[in-house]
Write a structure and sequence with these properties.
Residues 1-21, 340-367 are annotated as: Disordered. With 367 residues, the chain is α/β, with parallel strands linked by helices. The chain has helices at residues 23-39, 60-70, 88-101, 118-121, 129-145, 184-193, 206-222, 245-258, 268-274, 282-296, 313-336, 349-366, and strands spanning 2-7, 44-47, 75-78, 81-82, 107-111, 149-151, 159-162, 175-180, 196-199, 233-235, 239-241, 278-280, 301-305. The strands form 3 sheets. The protein has a 9-stranded parallel beta sheet. A two-stranded antiparallel sheet has the order 6-7.
Length: 367
């Protein structure tokens, strides 16, 4: 399995001090978090994409390209690439460029986004969100796999004899995850193309996540990509840790109570009881994360949200140290126990290239 960090890049006041970081400070903090993730042995750093305050990551490939130059092993991803409001031609070219610069250490997560006003800013209608996601991704899929594309659809101008540049590294497209919290149509889209499905797994109870993942697995098999157990699943998670669980609860409570998304709503205790949020000791984080397998099956990628709600950078880096030193080594060992041999590992550029070469050689042998 792969373990890592994902960030939404919010600029939020620290409720304990009242101080709000500048945009520059927040951007630099996200870079520091990515570098810390590699330092402690995590596998993935993923950034969101937003075009509205109070968020800063409007240009994911710019940030990931910078991080690529400062890392050696980290897989660079997105926690949302807005397939609805971005031009698929630009996505194809931007991420192929990033692939080359990062020597293949790139994948991305497609999402519709949950900020309604963004759609008209980019000339789209939120009421067409699902249709935009389906049409745009179908075009993107072709742009990475066909050297010359003729295409006509509803939401952008036609293409005639078009070649996106640069071509994907080694002729292998970046692996795509389709992220969704509540839309079965997106699970179906992921299953149809044989791509990965990532469930945010932060705000919703386990029974909802189970339904979404089971739908994707069933449809993955229906479309002939393998057994349901061989589908590629990723989950989010949200944690705050201290050595002593009481210290974790006491320190995190003001951040939770004032968080932009769930602040001034359910109590911390109710939220941790009803959702995957874990606030406590490293052992408690391990136990709850391992429980995800009970309803999602054996899966491939686990990402944690750790830098939201105004938490200062120093605290976030301490959290990542705990994650890398005390939590993830145990999770790697425990998740491997009883894992069927036919459950695939998380796709990487190397594994996708090897699969493509094997398929090519089989075709030559058959011919």
């Amino acid at each position: 399995m792969q373990f890592g960090i994902f960030s939404v890049g919010d600029v939020t006041p620290d409720p304990t001090t009242g101080r709000t970081p500048t945009e520059r400070e927040r951007i630099k903090a996200m870079v520091a978090i990515a570098l810390k993730a590699e330092e402690v042995g995590l596998d993935v750093f993923a950034t969101g994409e937003h075009h509205n305050p109070p968020f800063v990551p409007s240009s994911p490939t710019t940030m990931l390209g910078y991080i690529a130059a400062k890392t050696e092993k980290l897989t660079l991803s997105t926690s949302t690439t807005l397939i609805t409001t971005n031009d698929p031609v630009k996505i194809a070219e931007d991420f192929a460029m990033l692939q080359h610069l990062a020597d293949g250490r790139v994948d991305l997560m497609m999402g519709r986004g949950n900020t309604g006003p963004v759609y008209p800013w980019f000339g789209q209608d939120i009421r067409e969100g699902i249709n935009l996601a389906v049409e745009h991704y179908a075009l993107l899929h072709r742009l990475w796999r066909e050297d010359v594309v003729d295409w006509e659809g509803k939401f952008r101008t036609p293409l005639q004899g078009f070649t996106s540049t640069p071509r994907p590294l080694d002729g292998v497209a970046p692996f795509v995850w389709h992220g969704s919290i509540r839309s079965p149509e997106i699970a179906e889209l992921a299953a149809y193309f044989g791509d990965g499905f990532f469930h945010n797994n932060i705000f919703w109870p386990a029974d909802h996540t189970k339904q979404m993942v089971e739908l994707y697995r069933t449809r993955f098999a229906h479309h002939g990509h393998g057994t349901p157990e061989q589908a590629i699943v990723g989950l989010g998670g949200q944690v705050f840790m201290r050595k002593n669980s009481q210290d974790a609860v006491r320190e995190f409570r003001p951040y939770f109570d004032n968080a932009p998304v769930y602040g001034h709503g359910p109590s911390l205790e109710d939220f941790t009881d009803q959702t995957p949020l874990t606030v406590g000791s490293p052992r408690q984080v391990i136990e709850k994360t391992l429980s995800f397998r009970d309803y999602a099956g054996d899966y491939q990628r686990q990402l944690f949200l750790m830098d939201h709600a105004g938490l200062p950078l120093k605290t976030v880096l301490e959290q990542i140290d705990l994650l890398g030193e005390e939590v993830v080594p145990v999770l790697r060992k425990e998740f491997a126990i009883g894992r069927p041999t036919d459950v695939p590992e998380a796709p990487t550029h190397e594994s996708l290239l090897a699969s493509a070469q094997e398929t090519s050689s089989e075709g030559v042998t058959t011919a």
